[in-house]
Design brief:
alpha/beta, 8 strands
Length: 377
């Protein structure tokens, strides 16, 4: 989770002139109050007490801080900004100041209520969804990271106001070890947790053959007011920690398809450990979200062009490095199981909405003409 993934992505967006199709905002630093709307005060206080040179490693283990979630210089600022970006993006959507809001620094879906996990310290996705729920009766969360979106699923497992759909690698002790089809929610949230567990080597054709009909069915049955899409790029071909055969165009087709439903849309980053491929994917997907076609040759003026040996935004694929272990029978059974679970909802849950919070009412009154995409840096 190298932060310079974001620097390269931002540089490419500027080189292609995509910033001219968006309004760019500097996010606020998420406050203690912001973070404790989901996380426990004890956990957030402990995060703020940590320093790289501190010797309280024993207590750190109580909150799962260590090898996968190291303490580093600037950690507090980092988590405040990526969480603040997702909160601000959601608020822009609620105030109808944009139709699409993007925070590539966000999407850290593994963080739990009182512990870190998988390089994720605070769960900006949950915080963003909580903002959207102030205005929208139902929110659909879609996760295309190679890892299961466990932290988000867990946060909303007991409510029908959020449906979570995760497409991910499952089995053989792959992190985080959750996300089978029988994890469907509990109580009021029964059948609003949807999991699509995949095996090694899935390619564009078979991935999209599941993704599109499942998302179409979820949209029809659940009738969300807004969508949150986590675009983890470790599901791409040749990711250092991944094992799928998705191309950049296949990954981008998921983004394009979700956009086609014309709902308020919060787009977030996530995993991705081959830096050049991550920045290419998120730049390409920014162009798709802006409705722009860009040249496949990366501009010569880009400061990071040396990271791309072929000089291309969308690299060519020389075959699929992983054997596709997702056989026809497995995929047909998986699709049938997921579709059956979705039909169990029997229509969109009704929600008794209260008066809008004051901050959203004020935001709506201040709405300026036009609809724009928002990119939070």
């Amino acid at each position: 989770m190298k932060p310079y993934r974001l620097a390269i992505t931002h540089s490419l967006i500027l080189s292609y002139g995509l910033h001219n199709r968006m309004r760019i905002f500097k996010p606020h630093h998420a406050s203690f109050h912001d973070l404790t709307r989901f996380h426990t005060p004890e956990y957030i206080r402990f995060l703020y007490s940590l320093r790289p040179e501190a010797d309280n490693i024993e207590n750190s283990l109580d909150y799962n801080l260590g090898e996968d979630c190291p303490v580093f210089e600037g950690m507090h600022t980092f988590l405040e900004l990526y969480a603040g970006g997702s909160i601000d993006a959601a608020r822009k959507l609620c105030a109808q100041e944009c139709d699409i809001a993007i925070n590539w620094a966000g999407g850290l879906h593994h963080a739990h209520k009182q512990e870190a996990s998988g390089f994720c310290y605070v769960n900006d996705i949950v915080l963003g969804i909580m903002e959207l729920l102030k205005y929208h009766p139902r929110v659909l969360y879609i996760d295309i990271d190679i890892h299961h979106g466990d932290g988000v699923q867990e946060a909303f497992y007991l409510t029908d106001r959020v449906m979570t759909i995760s497409f991910h690698k499952y089995g053989n002790q792959f992190f985080p070890g959750t996300g089978d089809t029988d994890e469907t929610g509990l109580g009021q949230g029964k059948y609003t947790s949807v999991n699509v567990p995949l095996r090694n080597g899935i390619d564009d054709e078979h991935y999209l053959g599941l993704f599109k009909p499942i998302i179409e069915q979820a949209m029809y049955i659940y009738q969300p007011g807004a969508v949150v899409l986590q675009c983890g790029a470790d599901s791409l071909n040749l990711d250092r920690l991944g094992c799928f055969n998705l191309s950049h165009t296949g990954h981008g087709e998921c983004v394009k398809y979700v956009k086609s439903f014309n709902l308020p849309m919060l787009v977030l980053g996530g995993g991705g450990y081959t830096v050049a491929n991550v920045s290419r994917a998120w730049t390409y997907e920014t162009a798709l979200l802006c409705g722009e076609k860009v040249d496949n040759v990366i501009p010569q003026s880009n400061d990071y062009r040396k990271y791309f040996s072929d000089g291309l935004l969308i690299p060519g694929l020389s075959g699929c490095p992983y054997e596709n272990q997702n056989g026809r029978s497995y995929l047909e059974t998986l699709r049938a199981t997921v579709m059956t679970n979705l039909r169990m909802l029997q229509g969109a849950p009704s929600v008794q909405m209260k008066e809008l919070p004051g901050d959203l009412q004020n935001g709506a009154r201040c709405l300026r003409g036009g609809v724009h995409s928002t990119y939070t840096k």
